[in-house]
Amino acid sequence: MLSAFRHVTRILLITGAFLTTAGTAHAEAPEAVTQTVTDRATALGSRAAEVQSAIDQLERTHGIRLHVVYVRDFSGWNATTWADQTAALSKLGRDDPLLAVATVERRYAVSAAAGFPLSDAQMAQVTNRDIVPALQNGDWAGAAIGAAQGYGAAVAGTRDAGGGSAWWLAGAGVLALTGGGVYLYARRRRASTAAEDLDTRAGQALVHTDDAVKTSEQEVGFAVAQFGEEAAKPFAEALAYARGELDQAFRLRQRLDDEVREDAETRRAMLEEIVRRCADANARLDAESEAFDRLRDLEKQAPQILAEVRQAHAELVPKVAEVRRAMAATAERFADSALTPVQDNPDEAANRLEFAGQTLAKAQASLEAGESGRAVAQVLAAQSAVDQARQLLEAVTRRADDVRQAAAGLKPALEAVAANLSAAKALAADAAYTADLAPQIAYAESTATQVAQDVVAGGIDPIALLRRAEEAQATLDQALKGVRDKKARQEQARGLLGQAMLTARSEIAATRDFITTNRGAVGSTARTRLAEAERMLAEAGARADAEPAAALAAAQRADQLAQEAGRAARGEVSAFGPRGGRGGDALMGAVLGGILIDGMLGGGPRGGGAGQGPGRRARTPGSFGGQATRGRRGSGGAF
C-alpha cells in the first residue's frame, strides 16, 4: 500500500516524441532506493558525478534531498504508481521528491509528498522548463540536473509561479496542442468504495466477456469446419458484434489506465460504459446459443466428433517431441531469452494432450453407458484441449521464425544507426548549428556499440537487440528532426517500419497465445494491454504507405504494450498455484487454460450474475455463448 502522504504531484510525459519502443530483457519492479542517485539503466555514464553534485548542492542550500532513479522500463506499471511505490518503499519524507525515468519506455514520473514546499504550479513549471526538454533530447543527466537546479531556484523565490494552478493547466493544453506531448496533473488520493466497486465490476466484466468471446470463437471455428461458413454465418456475425463491443470496452479501459487522470464523473461514466458494452456482447452471444446447439446437435454428433478429436490427438502427441528438438536447436544458436515467451509451451501442450487423452477415454465410456449428456461435455473439453495444444506448439514454430528474421535484420539496422550517427556528428560539428547533440550522439553510439559487440559475441536474443537498435535510431531521429524535411523523415521511418512491425507482431502473437492458453489465471490488465497493442499494430499497418512515421510510432507503441501485457500475464500465471506442465495435474491445466470453467451445477459459470442459486461446484467445459449460457454443459457431470 502506498504511503498516504505521497501523491500530490505527478508529472508525466506520455505522448509525442518521448514515446518509443520498449526493449527490456528484465523487469524493473519498484523497490527501496538507498542513495540519491540510482542508475539501473546505466544512463548517466561519465556524468554521474555531475548529477550527484547538483543534488548535493540542492540539499546543502535548501534542505531538499532529490532522489533520481533510472530504469529501462516500469515493468508494465503505471509510471506514477511505480514512482509512488518506490518512494513509499524508500520511506522518503516531506522534502524528498523522487524523479523516476524509464529510458527505454521513455516515460517518467515525479512523486512528491503532500507537504513539499513547492506548489503544484511551481512543480509543473520546473518540469516544463528544466526536466522535459532534457528528456526529449535523451539527456538523462541533464534532466536530473535541471530538476535539482529548478527546485532550488523555485524554493529560493527566483522564479515566479506564474499564476497558480490556472497557469499550469493552460500550459498543459498549449503543450499538448503544439506537439510537446506533456500532460500535467496533480491529485490527492480519494477513497471511494462505490468507485472501487464499479472498477472491480468493470474488470470482471472484461475478463468474463473476453473468455466468452475466445471460447465462442473456437466453437465457431469448429462449426465452420464441420458445416461450412454459410451454416455458421449467424454465429460468426454474433461473434463479430460481441468482439466489436469488447474491443470498445478494452479501449475505454486503456484510456482509464493511461497516465492522464479523468475526473471522477468522467471515470464513472466510462466504467459504466465498459459494463454496458460487455453486457451487450454477452447478450448477443447468449441469444444465439440455442440455435448454435441445434446446428451442432452434439448428442447426435458426439461419436463422430469423438473419432475426429481422437485422430487429431494422435497426430499431435509426437509433435511435442519434434517441437522440443526444434527449440533445442534454436537455443544452441541464440540466447535462452529469445524463446522466453514460448519456453513452457511444449510442457503445456503435453499437459493439454494428457487431459484430452483422459477425457476422450471417459467420453467413450459415457457413450457406451448411454450417458449422452456427459459424453457431450467430455468431447467438448477434449476438443478444446487438443486445439489449445496445437496453438501452443504452433506458437513455438512461429517464434523461432521471428527470431531468425530478427537476426537477419540486425545488420541493416546497425547500418542505419551508423548513417544517422554520421549525420548527427556532422551537424554537431557545424558551427552554425547551436543545439547540443552530444547527449543523443553519446547515448545512441553507446547503445549501437553494445549491440554490435553482442552480435559478435554470439548467443544473442535477436528480437531484444533489434529493439535496442531501434531505440538508438529513435534517439537520433529525434535529434535530427529539426533539420530534415518531411519527405526525408518519412523515408527514414519507412526504412525502420519493417523491423518495428516484426518485433511488434512477434510479441503480440506470443502474448496472445500465452493469454489465450492461460486465461483461467489472467486478469483484465494484461488483456487490456494486449487489445490495445493489437489495435495499434492494425493502425500501423493501415498507415504504413501514406504515413510511415505515424505507422512507425504506432508499431513501436504496440510492441511496448504487448511486452507490458506479457509481463502482467506471466506474473498472474506464476501466482496461480499448481499448474499444468509444472507439476500440476492435467485437470488443473485444463482449468488454467480456460477449457473448464468453475460453475454451479444448474447455474452456469462462476460470476454469472444474479439468479445463480446455491449448488454443488463443478468444472464444466465452456461452450459458444455469453456469460449466462457458456457453462450450460455443466449438467453433463463433473470431470
Automatic annotation (TrEMBL):
<feature type="compositionally biased region" description="Gly residues">
    <location>
        <begin position="603"/>
        <end position="614"/>
    </location>
</feature>
<keyword id="KW-0175">Coiled coil</keyword>
<feature type="signal peptide">
    <location>
        <begin position="1"/>
        <end position="27"/>
    </location>
</feature>
<dbReference type="InterPro" id="IPR007621">
    <property type="entry name" value="TPM_dom"/>
</dbReference>
<feature type="domain" description="TPM">
    <location>
        <begin position="37"/>
        <end position="152"/>
    </location>
</feature>
<dbReference type="Pfam" id="PF04536">
    <property type="entry name" value="TPM_phosphatase"/>
</dbReference>
<feature type="region of interest" description="Disordered">
    <location>
        <begin position="603"/>
        <end position="639"/>
    </location>
</feature>
<protein>
    <submittedName>
        <fullName>TPM domain-containing protein</fullName>
    </submittedName>
</protein>
<feature type="coiled-coil region">
    <location>
        <begin position="271"/>
        <end position="315"/>
    </location>
</feature>
<keyword id="KW-0732">Signal</keyword>
